[in-house]
Amino acid sequence: MLRRVINPILFLPLALCINSINVLSSETKDYIDSVLEEKPNKPFISYQEIEEIVLNNQELRSLKNLVTSASFNLSSQIAQRYPSLDFQANGLPKYVAGKKHSSNSTTLKTSQYSANPSLNIKWNLIDPLRGPEIKIAKENYKIAENNYEIKKKDLIQEARIRYHKYQKSYQDIQNKKFTLNLSNTSLDNALAKLDAGIGTKFEVLEAEAQLSRDKQSLNEKKIEHEINTISLKEILNINGDFETNKEQNLIGFWNHRLNKNINEGLDQNLSLKNILLQQSIKKSQAQSFLSQNKPKIYISNTLASTFSKGDSLSSNIDSEKSGSNYTNTISLNFAWNIFNGGQNKNSYKSKIADAESEEYTYKNLKNVLTTNISKAYLNLKLNEQKIISSLKEIESSKESVRLSRLRYDVGISTLKDVLVRQNELSNAKAKNINALYNYNLNLDELERLTFLEISKSCLDNNNNKIKDSESICNISR
C-alpha cells in the first residue's frame, strides 16, 4: 500500500519538471506554422518601403498641388518683365443707318458698315514694384517646396512610429501568451499537487488568480495590436490586410556625435529656413510699399485703324463705296504717385516690425531643436544600455524560473515564489521590447531632426568596428 502512494509522489516532480521545460521551450514558434500563415493575396510591407508608400498619402498630394500653384504664380510674376500686347475692336463689324432731314437742304442718308481694330503694345521699362513682387513669389515657391518636404518627412516619421508600435504590440502579445502558458503550467502543477495530497487549495487559488490576470492582460494587448494595425493602414493608405515583419530588430546604428547632430540639424532644418524666407518676404513687402512712391516709366505703341463700306451723310447711298485709315502712336510715359498722406511709409514700418519679430521666432526654434536633438541622442544611448541589461535580465530570469519550479516540485519552495519569478521573466521581456521600440524611435527621430543617415554598421569615434561583446553593436539583430 505504501508503495502505491510513494510511486505517484516520486513521479510527480518528474512530470512537473517536464511541463516546465515544455513551457520554456514553447517560446520558439514552429517554423512550419509561420510559413502556413503566409497568404499570397496580402501585400508585404517592409520598413524600407515605408517612405515610398507614404508618397501616396492624400495630405501629401494636396501639398504637392500647392507647390505647383506657387510655381505658376512665380511664372506669372516673372512675366511682368516682358511687354504686353492688347488687341481691341470696337464693332466687328458695326452698322450705322439713319437720315438727316433739313428744310433748307437735301435729306442726307447713312448706311455704312465699319470696323475699328486697334493694337496696343506696352512695356514697363522701370517698375519699382516688379522686383519685390518677383522676389516674394520666388520665396513663396521655396516655402511651398519646404512645406512639402517637411510634411513628407513628418509623415514618414509618423508612419515609422506606427510601424514600430505595430511590431511592439505583436511582441507584447507573444510575451503575454508565453506568460499565460507559464500560468497554465503553474495551475496544472498546483492541481496535481493538490490531488496528490501534497499541495494546498490556497496555492490553486493563487494560480487561478494569476491565470485570470494574464488572460485579461493578453486581451488588452490584442486590442492594442488591432488598434495599431488600423492606425498603420490609415497612414499608409492601405485597404485590406497586409503582411510585414513582426519581429523586432535594430534598424541600424547611430555613429554621429552630439555636436555634429546639433550642427547638421540646425544647418539643414527646413522650418528654420522657412522662418528666414518669411522674414525676407516681409522685408520685400515693406520695400514694395516704398516703391509705390517711386516713378514708373513705360513705353507704349498704339496702332489704330478704321475700315468702312457704304455711305455716310450722302443724298444717294453708294453701297460699294469703301474706305480706310490708320494712325500709329509711340510714346514714352511717366507716372509718379508723389504723396498719399504717409500711408505707404507707415505700412513700410509695420512690415519691418513684423520682419524683426521673426528673429525671435528663429532663435526660439533653434533652442527647441537643440533641446530635441540632445534629448533624442541621450535617450538613444540610454536605450542602448537598456537593451543590453534587459537581455541579461531575461537570461537570469529564465534560470530563476527554472530553479524556482524545481524547488517547488521537490517541495522546498512555494508556488508564490514561482509566480513571482514568472512575473519577473515577463517584465524582463517587456523591458526588452520597450527598449528596442524606444531605440528605433530615437534613431528615426535623430534622422528626421539632423538629416544624417542611419548606419548599417556600428563604428567607434575612429570609424573602427566595435568588438566589445557587451556592446549594442554585437547583439543579435
UniProtKB/TrEMBL annotation:
Keywords noted in UniProt: Cell outer membrane, Coiled coil, Membrane, Transmembrane, Transmembrane beta strand, Transport
Organism domain of life: Bacteria
Stretches assigned to coiled coil: 134-176
UniProt keyword Coiled coil, yes or no: yes
Keyword Membrane carried by entry: yes
A Pfam family of this chain: OEP
Molecular-function annotations in GO: efflux transmembrane transporter activity; porin activity
Compartment annotation: Cell outer membrane
Cellular component terms per the entry's GO annotation: cell outer membrane; efflux pump complex
Similarity remark: Belongs to the outer membrane factor (OMF) (TC 1.B.17) family.
Protein name: RND family outer membrane efflux protein-like protein
Organism: Prochlorococcus marinus (strain MIT 9312)
